[in-house]
Design brief:
191 residues, Rna Polymerase Sigma Factor, Chain: A, 7 helices, 0% strand
């Protein structure tokens, strides 16, 4: 695995310009937007507050995207912008009850950024571990977690299998995947 998987996929000597630069930035943003939203929820303690701040962060990111150096750590750059927007939001809503102290917020932010790499490594390991499953297990996972799937029950009916059997199989597969991911990360010294 790369030392820092959260960097641009572009090679440093092939830094895109113009429209290619914007496209590279858009790909990085799309790759990490869920992490960004989770980071904001962690700092603000509320999905609705995070949504409000997420929108502001997006505005700033797209206004400032040309200042981002392709090939550097995108998550750290975004985290600084997001953290500044969280501070701004907290100042504007200081009278709201149930806010964390500034110190607690700073500590949580630091841990969340540290763990961003681990999340990405776990996601890569999951991809590798899925490839190690038997074809039947891989097919079951794909059928149950496909974006067109309305529910596991509907998948079981479509497959002509008892719902309970499908749930048991998925639980077994999840355990296998979890253990495989942990072994992979331990082998690579990432946990």
């Amino acid at each position: 695995m790369p030392a820092n998987n959260l960097q641009s996929d572009e090679e440093p000597d092939k830094v895109p310009t113009g429209e290619g630069r914007r496209d590279a930035f858009a790909r990085l943003f799309a790759k990490h937007d869920r992490w960004l939203f989770s980071y904001l929820v962690t700092l603000l303690g509320s999905p609705s507050k995070a949504e409000e701040v997420f929108q502001e962060v997006c505005v700033v990111l797209w206004r400032e995207y040309e200042t981002f150096e392709i090939g550097t750590d995108f998550v750290k750059w975004v985290a600084v912008i997001a953290h500044n927007q969280v501070r701004k939001y907290r100042r504007q809503h200081k009278r709201s009850a149930h806010q964390l102290s500034d110190e607690a917020c700073e500590r949580i932010a630091a841990v969340a950024i540290e763990r961003a790499n681990l999340f990405e490594y776990r996601r890569e390991a999951l991809g590798n571990c899925l490839g190690k499953l038997s074809p039947e297990d891989r097919q079951l996972v794909q059928l149950c977690y496909d974006e067109d799937t309305s529910s596991i029950k509907a998948t079981a009916i479509r497959m002509g299998r008892p719902v309970n059997t499908v749930y048991k199989a998925l639980n077994r597969i999840r355990r296998v995947l979890y253990q495989c991911i942990d072994r992979t990360l331990a082998t690579e010294g990432l946990v």
